[in-house]
Write a structure and sequence with these properties.
Layout lengths: L1 H7 L13 E2 L4 E2 L6 H24 L32 H7 L5 E4 L14 H13 L4 E7 H4 L10 H12 L3 E7 L17 H9 L4 E3 L5 E6 L14 H15 L1 H5 L3 E6 L31 H13 L33 H28 L6 E6 L12 H6 L11 H9 L3 E4 L17 H14 L4 E4 L7 H11 L16 E4 L9 H14 L28 H6 L20 H14 L3
Parallel strand pairs: 3-4, 3-12, 4-5, 5-8, 8-9, 9-10, 10-11, 11-12
Antiparallel strand pairs: 1-2, 6-7
Helix pairs in contact: 2-18, 8-11, 11-13, 15-16
């Protein structure tokens, strides 16, 4: 029976129908008499049934995995009957296809835990999480806000609300990526709530405002502590690096059961504004609007002193910080620094940009080293996020990238040094703007999101780090999803095993009522399926080469020559024109099915 069925029915990707009437288990599909809507739904049902039949015929049994039996985190020791059931072994074909599986995570709402440290509206969240799980989503990502957990005073941590949230995520059978969010929420694109830094930190800033990033005019940005205070003991005797380290150690202590249970698999370490390793060069709270070039953020007294020391050591005590780089909403050509034959091309400009970008990399390196110590031996992956500054990418000076701290030019790679630094900590390189295409952007802003993504991902793969990513803006259309699918597997799937290039994971931004609307969610579910290479949800990370061992100690610190060597530009890997795992929206699917229906009568 199975052979007869599979010889008659083909997948939606092509083939023919051997008969005008298809008999299923107790049902008949007759295109001549069935209403159009019913025909569409029935065709989709036929396809799903045949795929299940084929899987049963190849393996002798269903390859369904019961994901509801997920380990509870009530204790740090798991009994045998608490362990998840071993997944049924798939066929050889499925094993090879699983090598193309890219797990999909969904970012939870920014305010899922309130400013008062309360997990509000748990019934709604439970319903939404179950919908995600039913859609095949692998897990969720959540900001664990410093400003909420340590709000009552230094080292006074309250993890109770997050533990309640994590318990619910676990009960719903999802994995968890936790972000150590040391930044303020509010002021960036998509920020729907405001969550400030801990009040006791802001109080220190009242007497010493230079703990915050500062532009040339002296405007303070309270989104994240300046990296100038990383090693300044001004926080009740602690340096900023210790603030972050102590927070992560407390997280590990209070979440050890969830870590040991395999619920928490990633720790993304916030390293700057919006959790990204960058300077807050563009922020709406100070008047920036797209596509302004932004401003350098190194004019607090701590960074000014560090630059003066560096310039003096290089034999140029007369050099100061830039005073000709324009303002937030300028264009490159309107400034002396970024314009034609601008300061950025001079010896002085190159020295400054090297210092500015290296300070950022060193900051990330130091905090990740502390994260490695905090989670040493845990079965988790560390991760760090880099921003997709795609505007002015196609201009000679890459001005918006330079003000953000990414010293990236045609003859200098500004991202591979970061990837090399991350490789020292076995950390995932998480990049943004995966969904964007050049054709969707303003021509006058010289945007290049596609080329940027290709450069950054290629650099990460060359440095042998795991590369993950997310969309920068919420999208619900097939074009955005298809661009993400293309970037996840630039050269398509491999039916013989692991593709040449494949992303480690994709996080969709973000869970909302809009996403869960019928049409939007239908397209999203197809997107998840295509990220999974048309395979069913797989609970066993090892089956798609994502097994996580105990975190090893970071490798030795890189010397400056190692980082500078990584700035040598290299051609990106080849990229396909479009994904071979395409998502069609409902109208596209309907049109395709109608074409197939008409073909029945030819």
């Amino acid at each position: 029976m199975i052979n007869n069925m599979t010889s008659i029915i083909r997948s939606t990707q092509g083939g023919c129908w051997g008969s005008d009437r298809l008999r299923l288990y107790g049902g008949v599909f007759d295109p001549a008499v069935m209403p159009l809507v019913d025909r569409v739904e029935s065709l989709q049902g036929v396809i799903r049934k045949v795929k299940r039949i084929e899987a049963m015929g190849q393996t002798g049994r269903s390859n369904y995995v019961d994901v509801t039996k997920f380990p509870k985190a009530g204790t740090s020791k798991l009994s045998t009957d608490e362990m998840p059931e071993a997944p049924t072994a798939p066929s050889t074909y499925n094993e090879k296809m699983l090598a193309n599986y890219v797990p999909v995570y969904v970012m939870l709402p920014l305010g899922v835990i309130s400013n008062d440290n309360v997990f509000e509206d748990q019934p709604k969240m439970e319903k939404q999480l179950k919908e995600l799980r039913a859609a095949g989503v692998d897990g969720v990502m959540v900001d664990v806000w410093w400003g909420i957990v340590e709000s009552k005073g230094p080292k006074q941590y309250d993890w109770s609300a997050y533990r309640s949230l994590f318990a619910l995520v676990q009960e719903c059978g999802l994995k968890l990526q936790a972000i150590m969010s040391f930044h303020r929420c509010g002021g960036n694109v998509g920020d729907e709530v405001t969550i400030p830094l801990p009040q006791w930190v802001l109080d220190i800033g009242e007497t010493d405002p230079d703990i915050f990033y500062t532009n040339r005019k002296g405007n303070r940005n309270k989104e994240y502590l300046t990296i100038g205070v990383d090693n300044q003991p001004i926080f009740d005797g602690r340096i900023a690096v210790q603030l972050y380290s102590d927070y992560m150690k407390s997280f590990r202590e209070h979440m050890s059961d969830y870590i040991e249970a395999g619920l928490i698999i990633d720790i993304e370490v916030g390293l700057g504004p919006a959790g990204e390793l960058r300077y807050p060069s563009y922020t709406g709270t100070q008047g920036w609007v797209f596509p302004g070039i932004g401003e350098f953020q190194c004019y607090d007294k701590y960074l000014e002193a560090e630059f003066k020391e560096a310039a003096t050591g290089a034999g140029h005590p007369e050099w100061g910080l830039p005073d000709n780089a324009g303002e937030y909403n300028d264009t490159p050509g309107s400034t002396e620094f970024f314009g034609l034959n601008g300061t950025y091309m001079t010896e002085k400009g190159k020295f400054f940009l090297t210092w500015y970008s290296n300070k950022l990399i060193n900051h990330g390196d130091e905090i990740l080293d502390e994260a490695n110590r905090a989670f040493l031996g845990c079965k988790v992956k560390l991760a760090a996020k880099v921003a997709g500054i795609h505007w002015w990418y196609k201009s000679p000076s890459h001005a918006a990238e330079l003000t953000s701290g990414y010293y990236n030019l045609k003859d200098r790679d500004g991202y591979r040094p970061t990837a090399r630094m991350l490789s020292r900590h076995y950390a995932i390189f998480n990049f943004t703007c995966l969904e964007m295409r050049d054709s969707e952007q303003r021509a006058d802003a010289k945007c290049g999101p596609q080329e940027l993504v290709q450069q950054v991902l290629s650099g990460g793969w060359r440095e042998e780090v795991e590369v993950a990513g997310e969309n920068a803006l919420s999208r619900y259309d097939s074009n955005g999803y298809n661009q993400m699918l293309l970037n996840a597997r630039p050269n398509g799937i491999s039916r013989e095993g692991l593709p040449k290039q494949i992303m480690y994971g994709v996080t969709y931004l973000r869970l909302s009522d809009e996403l869960l609307k019928d049409k939007n969610f239908k397209i999203f579910k197809t997107f998840v399926k295509k990220m999974h290479a048309d395979q069913d949800y797989c609970a066993d990370l090892g089956m798609y080469n994502h097994q996580i061992g105990p975190l090893e100690r970071s490798k030795p610190k890189l010397v400056m020559e190692d980082l500078l060597e990584a700035t040598k530009p290299m051609e990106p890997f080849p990229w396909g024109e479009e994904t071979d795992m395409k998502v069609d929206d409902f109208d596209g699917v309907l049109a395709n099915l109608i074409r197939k229906l008409f073909s029945l009568f030819k």
